[in-house]
Amino acid sequence: MKKIVALLLSLLLVFSLVGCSTNQEGNTEVTDTANNEQEEAEENNIELAQGVKEDSIKIGTVGVQSGPLAFIGTPYFAGMEAYFNKVNDNGGVNGRKIELIKKDDEFNPAKSLQAVESLIYDEEVFAIVGHLGTPGVMAAVDTVKEAGIPSVYFGSGAVQLTQAGENFFPVQPNYVYEGKLMAKYAVEHFKANNLVVIYRNDDVGRDGLKGVEEGLKELGKSDILKSEGKLAYNSGDTDFTVQVQKAKSLNPDLIIIYGLSTGTAGVLKEIEKVGFDVPMLTTYSNADASFLAIAAPGAPNMIKNLHVMGWLDVTEESLKPLNEAMKKYFPDAPVNAYTMAGWVAAETFVAGLKEAGDNLSWEGYIEAMNHLNFTEGLAPEISYSPGVRQGVTKMAISKVAQDESGNFYFELVSEFNEFK
Length: 420
Prior knowledge:
The chain has 420 residues and is an alpha/beta fold. The protein is built from twelve helices and 16 strands.
């Protein structure tokens, strides 16, 4: 039985090991293989970027690793490091081991910007990989763009990242695009004729709502979402009586809940309280066991009506490499959607390294990513081309199900589709 969690793992990439020898003084010398690489790069007029040596590539990442939100960053960075450790143990990428430098921003945008500046200008890393958290990512966008350093994968669905520049490589779907695809599923999968959207009144929720509206317009179905069916709540709200009572009075055949974690859980709790039995659809950001742990106690019955968007097809079998790597390198860390997010961030970066070969200038890596068509992982496809930074565009729907032991999980109920 297929279970979608939210993010992914992938097949291992195995590369050859560059040989080394030790001289009489005890210092490590690079053998002819590495010397030949350097000579070949010089002959081809390839200037290696900062952070790249004959036997290593230094990269950096930023995200919350302490404080109340450390439960997100801890498994996230463990998943990232587990993948890099696995690659390094198999010889690295074209003989180069990956060195990861982590910076803790405590989910503070100002600290996130400082950390990115330090990685670029003090640590002189080759790339920023897996920058975690929309506030911090957006605070550092201009700095990363000005520097021209490759930035691969963001723990964010901000639509601005698709237009930030050629050196930005988002992977997970942005919220506007997801909203458009939600509209497509509303019309084609749920056969909805009367739609209500309950959304968080911030960039996340407004982007999602905008996508739903754009999608319905392109499908010629704008009439199924009326102005009174767009119901906002504020971040930090704990009482959703007004929104749910209004939604119930409109008698919809589908509710889209575009909010994160506790807000969505609060809406579900109120829906349970009033016995509002209606299909619901929410963002992929809630497609994780940690969300079910928060939401299910307050809505044990109505949560079974909840569907989530997902962009990775995760099965127990396909999770095996990630589980094995985590058991080996981080046996005490949880394996959840955040772990998978870190894994895919590392995996995507490495896919670009493979494509680039020894052309490891920033321009060379960006050019390689522009020709990337990566289908070996659990995402339906990760690909880029010049000027196109959409990330993953194929998504599917999962529905909350319950096993014989009473545990809730997400079960795949649709094919992967994209908005065309």
